[in-house]
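Help wanted!
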Amino acid sequence: MNMINKEPERYDIEALLPWHAAGTLSRRDADRVEQALAGDRELARRYDLVREELAETIHLNETLGAPSARAMEKLFAAIDAEEARAPRRQRTFDFGTRISEFLSSFTPRTLAWSATAAAAAILVQAAVITSVVVKEQGTSTGPSLASAASDGSFAVVRFAPQATATDITNFLGAYKATVVEGPLNMGGQLYRIRLSEAKLPKDEVGKIIRQMQGESKVVGFIAVNE
Amino acid sequence: MQAKSDEVLIGRIANGDRLAMQVLYARHHVRVFRFVVRLVRDEGMAEDLISEVFLDVWRQAGRFEGRSAVSTWMLAIARFKALSALRRRPDEELDEEAAGAIEDPGDDPGTTLEKKDKGAIIRKCLVGLSADHREIIDLVYYHEKSVEEVAEIVGIPENTVKTRMFYARKRLAELLKAQGIERGWP
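Answered by r_m:
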């Protein structure tokens, strides 16, 4: 068996052993570790130590028990009290509220820089789409939805992070499309857009979607929405 | 699969679905509790804190963007709550716990080994680690969090995650050595 001679590389691999034992490495890193383990007896011995720690950590945690029913009762009593004071609204296209709530969420120190950057990108895009909707619908009281969102043909779209207000305006204008709802409660920043006031045949909708998919500067993801 | 299903629940919770909240609670409360109890070393306090964690989930579900797994997001909230609670706790209480967490290594290690099996000694030493080291060991080994997820929960760079894990394991090896278990590493 050959040992890994390059110390820095070995250190890198050894640092990954705990995650390899827990099965949380990417396929690529897992393959690197497996390859190194196969050729390095000392590393394999150290991996056994990691596995021993893993087993005992699980054992230890499993002996910690579980919270009593009191915790759940307290939680739902608090939820009931909140709902009695201020019943929750269904999520709407209320960007003002969303943005102010969103900014307030920046206080916990648990937010890493990467999360902050991602959040800022969403904020910018939300502002972009808001401006588009406001412009398209000529309202001065804040963004609103296009009316009668049930008639016509629809798609859900996630705009590309780099898309500007002009890009989105031009894109919607070119296809005579309107934002009718969003962000949707489906994870990510999805918006529902109306492709046509009339219900179009499926193949025609498919054709429009394929064309829109080609606009990669503006469209990150798009799919038919029945 | 569960991560996706958690996201669906969060979407429903954002719209005020109480049943979805119950499902999410049933699915995660034990693990969140164990994570918190290992940080604060007080079951009563941990119970109070998990109620607060899930109440925050209820309140903030509408802001969840799906960039990380729901469990990762919840552990980050739990950690924040636990550390805030610890900061409010008197220092003397913490010192007493730290002192009592591990046996005096000055006793005869050979006798200790005879009395206890190796696994029990490892678990005892895991309890004796510092809060930072306990936390990272638990997140990696028990909560099955990747390097990226640990970085997000703890709020440190990914390279620091790896380094901290290394030092946590090194400290564990030192504690084991003091208990008569020589592992030949580091």
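OP: Thanks! One thing I noticed: Residues 1-91 of chain B form a domain with the Rna Polymerase Sigma Factor; Chain: A fold (CATH 1.10.1740.10).
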